[in-house]
Design goal:
It is a single chain. Helices cover about 40% and strands about 15% of the residues. By secondary structure, the protein is an alpha/beta fold. The chain folds into 2 domains: about 120 residues, Aspartate Aminotransferase, domain 1 (Alpha-Beta Complex), CATH 3.90.1150; about 250 residues, Aspartate Aminotransferase, domain 2 (3-Layer(aba) Sandwich). It has a 7-stranded mixed sheet with strand order 2-8-7-6-5-3-4, with helices on both faces. It has a 3-stranded antiparallel sheet with strand order 9-12-11, covered by helices on one side. A two-stranded parallel sheet has the order 1-10. Helix 4 runs parallel beside helix 10 and helix 5 runs parallel beside helix 6. The longest helix is centred in the C-terminal third of the chain and has 22 residues. The radius of gyration is 22 Å and the shape is globular. The two termini are about 30 Å apart. The structure holds pyridoxal-5'-phosphate. The site of pyridoxal-5'-phosphate (PLP) has 13 residues, from helix 5 and helix 6.
């Protein structure tokens, strides 16, 4: 297999991948060395210096710029959040919806995506679900849209089966029908190139602890700033366009910032933001296109070998419709998870099987170990 980057070199940056066969980056990535270095620097500064907040705030803007470039966006369209759920809730509650309006979701999508919108039922919003099918594109939604449809919210890549849905096609439909479009990119960022200009969504929502290698506790929201009618539900000093200089709240001047800062409240997770900066540098050095191609090659190899063992995939097989890095094997989690873990193989139980998900460090040897363990057990 012709690798698209120096996998053995990158593997050395993930020491945790030495002790187990880690095939669970869809749950959480092990920490790469550059991220540890950034966190160590933060801790050292916090420990040794009194209040280096200004330096950290400057680095926050540097990271915001880097993240914006990474998704072909403008930095003033990015708000930092705690995680995906917070970003989705901010988005759901910013929509100017009224009783009787409807919002479309996909059945069985990630619960953090679903709850943010199901909660709108309390405001009289009609939240509807379309079936989860192997392919989801504009046609899947078209017949469900009526004159009261105001928004569609969905995941780009599904966590439980590795579908990769056609968000550019759905984005086109939403623009045509003037429908707000919210996409959860938690499972795709860092793995699939994301270009906000091509997607044409209203909001993109994500955490950073999978394809972006940051420990849990940081997420972000991308917002189409042309949508100035979308206002924040929560407000803090940083969210208003003209924060009071004397630090006394001015109730006569509470217009939200024109930038995505309108959706930010209070202090940031400064340590994690600096970790994110380092993580994006690492990804950019390799190139997200190279990461995507490498995972597809590993995935092709995995599928070939699963075919030989007679094990089916739960999700789609074709590169067009599957995520590069998530493969759910039709093996009963109850029977298999404990066994695989006894073989030092880390993966996740999902609704319909065992989920294998790749990280930058995975190689063919990891696949060999997985498939040898499975085939050994099948022969027993
Ligand atoms: C599609 C998707 N959305 C969201 C999440 C997580 O949400 P949060 O970042 O709020 O923990 C996950 C996985 O953890 C996910 O796979």
């Amino acid at each position: 297999m012709q690798n698209t980057y120096n996998v053995s070199g990158i593997r050395k940056l993930f020491p945790a991948a030495k002790s187990v066969v880690y095939l669970d980056s869809g749950l959480q990535s092990p920490m790469p060395r550059p991220v540890k270095v950034a966190l160590d620097r933060y801790n050292k500064e916090a420990y040794e210096n009194a209040g280096p907040k200004l330096i950290w705030l400057n680095r926050t803007e540097q990271a915001r710029n880097k993240l914006a470039r990474f998704i072909n966006a403008s930095p003033d369209e990015i708000a930092f959040t705690k995680n995906t759920s917070e970003a989705l809730n901010i988005a759901a509650n910013a929509l100017p919806l009224k009783r009787g309006d409807n919002v479309l979701l996909i059945h069985g999508d990630h619960p953090n995506n679903a709850y943010a919108f199901l909660n709108l039922r309390r405001k009289g919003i009609d939240v509807r679900v379309i079936p989860m099918t192997e392919i989801i594109n504009s046609e899947s939604f078209l017949s469900e849209i009526d004159e009261n449809t105001r928004a569609i919210s969905m995941s780009h890549v599904t966590f439980h089966a590795g579908h990769k849905f056609d968000i550019e096609d759905i984005g086109r439909l939403c623009r045509e029908k003037n429908i707000y479009f919210i996409v959860d990119i938690m499972q795709s960022i860092g793995v699939v190139p994301i270009d906000v200009q091509k997607i044409g969504a209203t909001f993109l929502c994500s955490g950073t602890h999978k394809g972006l290698f940051v420990p849990q506790g940081l997420g972000f929201l991308w917002w189409d700033k042309k949508r100035q009618e979308l206002e924040p539900t929560y407000l803090a000093a940083a969210s208003v366009e003209h924060p009071s200089e004397d630090f006394i709240a001015n109730s006569n001047n509470m217009a939200p910032a024109k930038t995505a800062r309108r959706f930010e409240i209070g202090n940031y997770n400064l340590a994690a933001i600096q970790a994110l900066d380092a993580a994006i540098d690492l990804i950019n050095k390799i190139g997200v296109n190279n990461i995507e191609s490498y995972y597809y090659m590993l995935g092709d190899r995995l599928i070939e070998r699963l075919d030989c063992l007679g094990i089916s995939l739960v999700g789609p097989r074709s590169r067009q419709h599957r995520a590069p890095h998530i493969y759910v094997l039709q093996l009963q989690p109850k029977e298999w998870l404990e066994y695989l873990s006894s073989q030092q193989i880390r993966c996740s139980p999902e609704r319909d099987g065992i989920r294998i998900s790749f990280g930058l460090f995975n190689n063919e040897l990891d696949l060999d170990k997985l498939l040898e363990a499975i085939s050994h057990q099948m022969k027993r």
